[in-house]
Amino acid sequence: MSISSITQVSGTGVYIPGADIDTDRIIPARYLRCVTFDDLAEGLFRDVRTDPEGNTLNHALDDPKFQGASIMLSGPNFGCGSSREHAPQAIRRAGFNAVIAESFAEIFFGNSTGLGMPCVCATADEIKALGAAVEANPQLEVSIDLESMTASYGETTIKVTMPASAREALMSARWDPIQELLDNSDAIKSRGEALPYV
Amino acid sequence: MAKNLYQKVWDEHTVGTLQDGRTQLFIGTHLIHEVTSPQAFGMLRDLDLKVKYPKRTFATVDHIVPTDNQQRPFADPLADAMITELRKNADEFGITYFDLASGMQGIVHVVGPEQGITQPGTTIACGDSHTATHGAFGAIAFGIGTTQVRDVLATQTIAMEKLKVRRINVDGELSPGVYAKDVALHIIRLLGANGGIGYAYEYGGSIFDGFTMEERMTVCNMSIEGGARCGYVNPDETTFNFLKNRPYSPKDTEWDDAVNGWQAYASDADAEYDDVVNINAGDIEPTVTWGISPDQGIAISESIPDPAEAKNEVERASIDEALEYMKLPAGAPVKGTHVDVAFIGSCTNGRLSDFREVAKYLKGRKVAEGVKALAVPGSQITAVICKKEGLDQIFIDAGFEWREAGCSMCLAMNPDKLQGDQLCASSSNRNFKGRQGSPTGRTVLMSPLMVAAAAIEGEIADAREVFSVN
């Protein structure tokens, strides 16, 4: 099993503003009635994109000018709520390769890292400015660089943050930890034997 | 060096440090359900891996089961496929599965404690964010994603970053009619929906010392609504008494040794914390939410926030968004808000004590006309005991529908859903937009007795007045 190192992610962006955007909103629960992740892109933000009668609500994700966007921008506590990996899976399967937000809920962050999708933080003002730039020029290339921990667009470069371990995992192609976990089977065995209840 | 429980359990379960700096943590107990596990088993098959410790994984089915008619096949073929898949995976990999026919099925966070699987000093993971519930027993318990479910199945470990620990003391006395749910909603209101990011919450103080296990579970359950992935209470006599004689609890001569071991996990008296918050129990009133995030709560005596009085632009926008969705008037009392549906159940408040407490007051009362009221026990065992005690009949006589065990209307993955913009007084844990199944449905979170009061009045009411609680 080989996975690639992720140092730089570039693409056009789409701004989905708001605080505490939860995983129920990212992928409504009815889309979780499945045994594979294959068809999740359809459910992405579905109930804020279409009304119950099927009419469009003119969400940014359906705006033709943002088609092909691969970097999502949002507010604080993005991905809060349910642990459903279906949420980052839906974002990924809809073509996104990274998320920039003010902060991330932990389980969502870990799930995203495990899919090789970097989630980096910037300040509210920086995201607002980036969002405005993207709105003004949807073809604007946004680039995240994990080496320098910056995001750049046009003439602007901002600092972004991410926990050191996730950054290291992405850059060293260890974001899917399964092989390393498996490799430590002797240590797992002795730890298990030392636990009274295992 | 003095340690808190989190540090002790973390150290004892550390397998090693991974190259990226994360800890490889041993997961002693793994709970799985039908929604977040099938893809993980698929990944195992793709990688040609086996379940490493099948005896340490326990399965049940909760999210998708209908609570009215549980005859197979279910009316929803997708739901039926998921339950079929869980049976297949449990059989193939030798995992204990509390299925619908077992008499032990229920919401995974009710089943674990009920069976005595949830024990102090253990690590517990489950592909469900409400796994923190098990922290009530002094376990380090947290929700994980499906890829991590794969990791636990294949290695009994996950890659994880250590959390900071915030001690939350609640001292003093709770007034009559104020419940564990109100304590949880109050803490979240105080610290915010993202206040717990990066922290495990250690709950303590005289209120938690005096709480029953079920009350402790209610508060630990909602840690995640405050952004904390994990929340716990130190184990004590209350914990041990609850666990004694449960099916998976240590037996006979092993019991005393186990209790001695468990006691040692409790935080040392001089343990240090990354943060400490002190809350006066007397400040807590019956609390209800008015918005679309669990931290948007107010006491029942308070008014709905007015965006004009917001402290800043961000707060104003957030109140505006919430009130627009909730269709509630700014500045009006929350009491008197019309209610269409009343729901008592979920992993937060679907336990025996919840039904016992409500039944005490419900006798002889009637649900208001036009209100659909659901009472959904959290497990089959809870349902059996309720029946034995005649509680089910009290709910039925009052006009509640008494259902079979499951997650029901908490999360809209089964037929129990809101319609249109119905407003639901709910004992569950999340008031997110669309959470209860209708994209325009509205949820007001509250304690089970407050839900009963709302059902009877047909509007949000103060249970202390409706039931003369004093």
Q: Any low-confidence stretches of chain B, pLDDT <50, length ≥5? A: none
CATH superfamily annotation of chain A: Aconitase, domain 4
Count of runs of 4 or more consecutive helical residues of chain B: 17
Number of domains of chain A: 1
Strand order of the largest sheet of chain B: 5-4-3-6-7
Strand content of chain A: 5-15%
The CATH level-2 architecture of the largest domain in chain B is identified as: 2-Layer Sandwich
Q: According to CATH, what is the topology of chain A?
A: Aconitase, domain 4
CATH superfamily of the largest domain in chain B: Aconitase, domain 3
Query: What is the overall silhouette of chain B?
Result: globular
Global morphology of chain A: globular
Overall structural class of chain A, as computed from helix and strand content, comes to alpha/beta
Query: Which radius of gyration of chain A do the C-alpha atoms yield?
Result: 18 Å
Compressed to H and E, one letter per element, the order of chain A equals EEHHEHEHEHEEEHHH
Share of residues in helices of chain B: 25-40%
Extended strand count of chain B: 19
The count of helical stretches of chain A stands at: 8
Assembly type of the shown chains?
A: heterodimer
Major sheet size, sense and barrel closure of chain A: 4 strands, antiparallel
Sequence stretches where pLDDT stays below 50 over 5 or more residues of chain A: none
- Order of strands, main sheet of chain A, comes to 1-6-7-8
Describe this structure in words.
The complex is a heterodimer of chains A (198) and B (470). Chain A has helices at 23-26, 46-49, 86-93, 106-114, 124-136, 164-171, 178-183, 185-194; strands at residues 8-11, 13-15, 71-73, 98-101, 119-121, 142-145, 150-153, 156-159. Chain A has 198 residues and is an alpha/beta fold. Chain A has a single domain (8-194), classed as Alpha-Beta Barrel (Aconitase, domain 4). In chain A, strand 6 (142-145) and strand 7 form a beta hairpin. Chain A is globular. Chain A starts with 7 loop residues before the first strand and ends with a helix. Chain B is α/β, with parallel strands linked by helices and 470 residues long. Chain B folds into 2 domains: 5-163 and 234-259, Aconitase, domain 3; 287-466, Aconitase, domain 3. Chain B is built from 17 helices and 19 strands. In chain B, strand 9 (164-171), helix 6 (180-191) and strand 10 (199-204) form a beta-alpha-beta unit. In chain B, helix 6 packs parallel to helix 8 and helix 13 (352-362) crosses helix 15. The termini of chain B are far apart. The relative contact order of chain B is 0.13. At the A-B interface, helix 4, helix 6, helix 7 and helix 8 of A face strand 1, helix 2, helix 3, helix 5 and strand 8 of B.
